[in-house]
Amino acid sequence: MAITGSRTHGAPPHVSSSLVSRLIERHSRELALACDASSAITWRDERAVRVLGVRAGQRLTELACPGAEEKLGIFCDRAKREPLEGWELCMLAGDRPVTLVCASVPEPDGSGFAIFASVLPEEIVAVSASTSDALREVDSLNRELARQGRELLRVNHELSESNRGIVQLHDELAQRAEEAATSAEVKSRLVANVSHEFRTPIHSILGLSQLLLDETDGPLTEEQRTQVRFVRSAAEELALLVNDMLDLARLESGIASVRASKFSIGELFETLRGMLRPLLPADSRVQLSIDAPAEDVVLETDRGKIAQVLRNLVTNGIKYTEQGEVRVDVTASATDVRIAVVDTGMGISPNDLPRVFEEFYRAPAAAHLRGTGLGLPLSRKLAELLGGAIEVESELGKGSSFTLVLPRVHPEVRTVEEIRARGSVRDPSRQAVLVVEDDRKTIFVYERYLSLAGYQVIPARSIADARALLNEVNPAAIVLDIMLEGETSWEFLSEVKSSPATRDIPVLVVTVMNREQKARALGADEFWLKPLDQDRLLRRLQQIPRRSSPTKVLVIDDDPRARYLVRRLLDGTAFGLIEAETGHEGVRLAHDQQPQVIILDFLLEETPTTASGRMTAFDVIDALKSDPRTRPIPVIILSSHALGDAERQRLAQTTESILSKENLSRELAMQRIRDALHKAGIHPVSSPGNGG
Fold first, then answer.
1. Which helix (H) or strand (E) holds 662?
2. Residue 167 and residue 65: Cα distance in Å, rounded?
3. What is the Cα–Cα distance from 477 to 201, expressed in whole angstroms?
4. Spatial distance between the Cα atoms of 502 and 260, rounded to a whole number of angstroms
5. Which of 190, 302, 356, 458 is 20–30 Å from 311 (CA)?
C-alpha cells in the first residue's frame, strides 16, 4: 500500500512518512519475487529476504517443504504461461516451514514471471493441520471398526432376545438424527466436518447394506452375507462415533432437550441387558452383572439419556477390563438415585484421574485401546442436563467406579408440577388461561410472564389433560400448541370451537408448523409461530372481554375540582370511578385495582411528599407502561394546556386520546372512554336508564 503526502491519507503531522514506511516494511506480511524461465530468482524485495532468506540465482523449487516439491514445480511451470491466484505453497524459511498465498503474472515473452505472496498466520495453518489430522484419525478409526466387526457375527443368534434393546437404540439414533437435521450450528470445526463429510455416506452405507441383507435384488451366498454384515457393522460403529460427537456439540450449545417419562429401574436394566449383551463375545473372560434392586425404584426423567450414559460407562468398563467383572449397582433415597458402574480393570492413575472428563483425552496406559475420548465428557454433560453428576473413584491396577447421581424427578418435571398445583387452586381475582403445551420449559416461560401480568396459568401437557380441565374450569383463553408429543391437537381445536359450551373461548394457536390456513378454518382466533413475543400475547389477551367485571375508570388529577367534574359526568353510568390525587397514588391504584381506563391530568403538579419525589404526567405514563400488569390499560390525557407538537407526538405513542378540560362534556367523555375500551376489547355493561 502506497504512502502519499496528501492531508487525507498521509501520516499524522507529528509522525514522519519515513517512520511509517519503516513500520509497514517491518510488519507487513506481503513479499515479492521475480524468476526467470528456469525458476531461478532474479529479483526479490527486502521482505522476501527477511522472511524466506532467499538469494539471487537460487531456484524457487529449492525452497519447497518436504512433500510439497511437486506442487511448487507445477506452480512454477504454469506461472510462466498464465496468471495464477490463490495458490497455497509451503516453503522453507531456513528450517522453519512457512505457508504463502501466492499470485503470479508471466512475462509477455515467456522469459519469466513475477510472484506476489502473503504469509499466512501460523494460527490459521495450525487449525488447517489440526483438521486434517482429525480427519485422518477418523479414517483410521473406520478401518479399525471394520476389523472389529467380526465380533458381532458371534452373537447373531441372540438378536431375537436383544430386540427390545435394539429398538431402543434405534429410537435414540433417530432422535439424534432429527436434532442434527434442525441444528443451525455445531460448536467446533471438527464436528462440522465430521457431520457434513461422514454422516450422509454412513447412512447410505447402512441403508444399502440392509437392502442387500434383505435380498431385495436377489439371494446372496453365505459368504456374500458375511461380507455385507462386516460392512454394515463397521458403518454402525462409525455412525455411533459421529453421533456422539454431534450430541456433545448440542449439549455444549444448549439446544439439547429433555423428554421425561415415568419408568422403573427394573425396566431400564432389562433394556440395558439386551442392548449390552452383544458387546461380550462368547469366550469373553469378563462377567457383566446388571441386577435391578430388590425394591424397584421409579424415576421421572429422560430414560433415553440415562440409558446412553450407562451404556457409555458399561462399554468403557468392558473395554478396559481384560478379565474380571463389570457390575452395575443401585442405591436410592427418597429424592435421589445412585447408579454405580464398577469394574475390576486396569484402573486410572492419580495423575490421569482429573483429566478423564476432558474431550479427546486418552490416558497413556489406554493408548493401545481403540476409542476417541468422547464417551466420558458426553456422559458428564448428559448427567448435568438431567440435573445430576458423575462421580469417579479409581485405583491403578485394581479397577474403577463411575457413579451416576440423579434426582428421581427431573427439575423441569418438578417445576411443571408446582405450576400445575398452583393452577389447581382457583384464584377468583385472576383470569385463567389454559396452556396446552408439552414442552416444560415453554410452560415455565408462559407461567412467569402471564402470572406477572395478572393471569393464572393452568397447564395441560396432553389433549386428555386439556379435555379434563375444560370440564372443571371456564378459562378466559386457550393457548394451544398443535404439535404435542405423540399427538396433534387439530381435533381438540375443532371440538372446542364446535361445542356450545366452549365455542366462545378464544383459542390462540402458538406452534412451530406454518399451518395458519388450517388453524383458521377450524376456528382459531389467532395463529403465531414460535418463538412468540410475550408483549404480543399479552396485548391479545387484554383484548378479551372480561366476564362480569365492572368497568373501572381511574382519574389521576391533583385538582379536586377536576376530579369532581369527572365524577359528576360519569354519575349514573356503568363506570365505577377511582380517584387519585398524586402520580404515585395513581400508579399504586392502577397496579392494585386494575382499572379498564385511566384519565390522567397532563399538568400534574404534586408536592414531593415522598422520597421518590414529584411525578409528572410523563413519569406516570412511563411507570404504567414499564409494568406488564398496567401496560395494556388505555390512558386518556385531560389537559387545560395548549400542547406543543413534540408533546403531542410523544403522547400519541403511549395514550389513546387527548381531551381539553375547557370543552369537556358528558357525551364527549363517554365517547372517548368507550373508544378506549373498544380498542382494548372491553365491553362494559350498560346501566339501565343511562342512555348507553
1. none
2. 53
3. 49
4. 31
5. 190
Residue extents of the structural domains in the chain: 27-120, 129-253, 261-407, 412-542, 551-679
d(CA 446, CA 534): 8
**Could you tell me which of 135, 148, 136, 134 has the C-alpha nearest to residue 369?**
148
Q: What is the CATH number of domain 27-120?
A: 3.30.450.20
Task: For residue 424, give the C-alpha cell.
Answer: 389447581
Degrees, nearest 5: CA angle 497-503-504: 135
- Asked whether 41 and 35 are in contact (CB, 8 A), the reply is yes
CA nearest 603: which of 635, 579, 639?
Answer: 639
Residue 114 CA to residue 98 CA, distance in Å, equals: 19
Grid cell, residue 45, equals 524485495
**Is 340 in contact with 329 (CB distance < 8 Å)?**
yes
DSSP 165: H
DSSP string, 369-431: S---S-HHHHHHHHHHHTT-EEEEEEETTTEEEEEEEEESB-HHHHHHHHHHHHHHS--TTSE
Q: Give me the sheet containing 286-290, strands edge to edge.
A: 286-290, 324-332, 336-343, 399-407, 389-395
Handedness of CA 71, 74, 76, 82 (dihedral sign): negative
> pTM of the full predicted structure?
0.43
CA distance 379 to 310: 8
**Same fold for the domain at 412-542 and the one at 551-679?**
yes
Compute mean pLDDT per 10 residues along the chain, 692 residues long, and list them: 40 52 61 92 89 88 89 92 91 86 92 91 69 75 74 66 68 68 50 59 78 82 83 72 68 69 87 78 81 84 88 86 89 91 88 82 65 79 90 89 92 79 71 87 82 85 88 87 83 89 88 86 87 81 65 86 82 79 90 86 62 75 86 84 80 83 71 71 44 38
Q: What is the CA radius of gyration of the chain?
A: 37
CATH topology (fold) of 261-407? Heat Shock Protein 90 (3.30.565)
CATH superfamily of 412-542: Response regulator (3.40.50.2300)
List the strands of the sheet with 112-119, edge to edge. 41-44, 30-36, 112-119, 96-106, 84-93
Identity of residue 356: V
Interatomic CA distance for residues 580 and 602, integer angstroms: 14
Burial tier of 424 (Cβ tally within 10 Å: 0-12, 13-18, 19+): exposed
Superfamily of domain 551-679: Response regulator (3.40.50.2300)
